[in-house]
Write a structure and sequence with these properties.
Largest sheet: 7 strands, mixed
Shape: globular
Strand content: 25-35%
Helix content: 10-25%
Distance between the termini: 61 Å
Order of helices and strands: HHEEHEHEHEEEHEEEEEHEHEEEEHEEEE
Radius of gyration: 21 Å
Length: about 375
């Protein structure tokens, strides 16, 4: 069977990503990562494959080559501009076994199901039950999934479907743009779980995992972002350069209900801890921001960093993935992906652990925050 490297030699990447009629599309993934995901997907000739996130059309063209003339590829994207152009470029190249549709990919596409393989180039809020239901038994999907309820906290999961239930066989470092209900123009702002956003005098945003404690005016999120931006205490991290994939998966595995993600500076994410009264985060460049020098959240953040270093900065793949069923009537049904440390408990100090609603141990990390009225 031909390898992805062999197939890639026959598919003109730049013809898709920088087509002379459409121009360059920013909605595209790194080709090296595309090749990795498709290798993991293990596509064979004659298969029926679905992809979520058409992008430039390049990944769909690779899949069309892999399934051959007896297979078919269904590509979905919420942006009709992308699907129309990809259909045209595929037609120009004489591909007849790939078709792009404008649709919400999180619902799947039952009209062409069942699928032997699925791959996603966008991140749903959870593993949708609709995807699982549209797969054949022993089918395989490769998709980025959230590992916490804040943006940019993801891994790519290899999921096998057996008897109608998903099983995670492996996880990898990575993630893609959040799946949204309408086309997304601003690719710098997360598409989901942004609890407050400033556009002037400079763009900034924040995501708080304790959003259910906030009020309808978003006082908690707005005040927390203000604390980190105005007259904040800053200090450099005294450890080596932050290994962001390791750091964010370590924090996610703690299961802490006060995890906070922010964008305080252009092109830099920040991750840490906050409550309605205190906040502290570390940016990707190693700069720490806190509401004050003796901030309780800063103490929590320093403890997390110390635990992370003591654990040897574990790779994302070192954590054990589990799927937790979600069917609470409050949104889409499916499975949340969560990580467990090598000890069988959430990473962190077991002395501060408590039993969470899913039956997992959750590191509290701070006294419970008050709920806003």
């Amino acid at each position: 069977m031909a390898t992805i490297a062999d197939i890639a030699e026959t598919v003109p990447e730049r013809h898709y990503t920088h087509h002379e009629g459409r121009g360059a599309t920013p909605h595209r993934s790194n080709p090296v990562v595309i090749h990795r995901e498709l290798t993991t997907l293990d596509v064979h000739p004659g298969m029926n494959v679905a992809e979520f996130g058409t992008g430039s059309g390049y990944s769909g063209a690779l899949l069309a080559q892999l399934v051959g003339p007896t297979g078919q590829v269904t590509s979905l994207d919420i942006d009709h501009y992308l699907t129309r152009w990809a259909n045209l470029i595929h037609h120009e190249r004489g591909l007849r076994n790939v078709r792009c549709y404008t649709a919400d990919g999180t619902a799947g596409f039952p009209a062409r199901a069942p699928y032997d393989r699925m791959v996603a180039w966008c991140t749903p809020p959870l593993l949708p039950e609709t995807w699982v239901n549209q797969m054949v038994d022993c089918g395989l999907m490769v998709a980025p999934l959230p590992i916490a309820t804040v943006p940019n906290m993801t891994v790519v999961a290899k999921v096998r479907i057996r008897n109608g239930r998903p099983d995670v066989e492996a996880i990898f470092t990575g993630g893609y743009i959040e799946a949204t209900a309408s086309p997304k123009g601003d690719l710098d702002l997360p598409g989901r779980w942004v609890d407050w956003e400033n556009r002037v005098p400079a763009p900034s945003w924040i995501s708080i995992a304790w959003r259910e404690k906030d009020n309808w005016r978003n006082n908690g999120a707005r005040t927390t972002l203000h604390r980190l931006l105005k007259d904040a205490h800053t200090e450099p991290y005294d450890g080596p350069e932050v290994d962001w994939p390791s750091w964010r998966t370590f924090v996610a595995a703690k299961g802490n209900p006060y995890v906070t993600m922010a964008g305080l500076s252009p092109d830099l994410w920040a991750l840490g801890h906050s409550t309605p009264a205190t906040a502290a985060v570390i940016q990707q460049n190693g700069v720490i921001f806190a509401d004050c020098r003796d901030s309780p959240s800063l103490t929590v953040l320093r403890d997390w960093l110390s635990e992370w270093e003591s654990a040897g900065r574990p790779a994302p793949e070192a954590h054990t993935p589990i799927l937790v069923r979600r069917d609470d009537g409050q949104g889409p049904t499916g499975w949340d992906l969560r990580l467990i440390g090598a000890s069988g408990m959430r990473a962190g100090n077991s002395a501060t652990a408590s039993l969470g609603p899913s039956g997992l141990h959750v590191d509290s990390g701070h006294e419970p925050a008050p709920r806003f009225d």
